[in-house]
Amino acid sequence: MKEIDCRGMACPQPVVRTKQALYQTEESEVTVIVDNPSSSENVERFAKSQGCSVTLEKKGQDFYVHIKKAKSGDKEKIATRKEKVKTVVVYINSDLLGVGDEGLGSFLMKAFLNTLLDLEKKPDRLILINSGVRLASEGSKVLDTLRTLSEKGVEIVSCGTCLDFYKLREKMSVGSISNMYDIIQSMTEADCLIRP
């Protein structure tokens, strides 16, 4: 049985490490050690989404997530379900994720975009609207992440009206400028629309 120690790691790293372990090891069982309930729940949810069976064990302050890998037949069912999703569009209308503390919102947006990089199936298009256009502009803390997503084939588009409103048209550093018609068309034609 392989053990992955994810104590002290911030979200989404425990899930990313779990995914890597499940795909890179031949072991039929993997144990992931985390030090908080949120990470434990996230790892459990991910493992179950991959068709694995999960048992939890708490030792002191730590959580041991015991994962039994899916059988090949279960993996085929999951793969078939994933194949049904064709076009994935991510619609981001703010430079922050969620409502509340700005520092937390900025951290969560960075974590969200970094997690997109770790997905096997990347989105086809990333739409930035309203203050979301700040993410693709000079000085953005996530500019490197967006550039990497673009290099990996994710089309990144920013609303031209929004860029003008925030006076960022000349500072846009990744992707292309789009318009409301194009944005709405890609949203209505998407097989899966994600609005974080």
Alpha plus pi helix count: 7
Strand content: 15-25%
Largest sheet: 5 strands, parallel
Radius of gyration: 19 Å
Termini gap: 36 Å
Structure characteristics:
196 residues, alpha/beta, five-stranded parallel sheet, four-stranded mixed sheet, 9 strands, 40% helix, elongated
Question: What report would you give on this structure?
Answer:
The chain is α/β, with parallel strands linked by helices and 196 residues long. It contains 7 helices and 9 strands, in the order βαβαββαβαβαβαβαβ. The protein has helices at residues 13-24, 37-49, 72-83, 102-118, 143-151, 160-165, 180-189; strands spanning 2-5, 29-34, 53-59, 62-68, 88-92, 125-128, 155-159, 176-178, 192-194. It has a 5-stranded parallel beta sheet. It has a 4-stranded mixed beta sheet with strand order 1-2-4-3, with helices on one face. Strand 7, helix 6 (160-165) and strand 8 form a beta-alpha-beta unit. The longest helix has 17 residues, at 102-118. It is elongated, with a radius of gyration of 19 Å.
Short description:
This protein has 7 helices and 9 strands. With 196 residues, it is an alpha/beta fold.
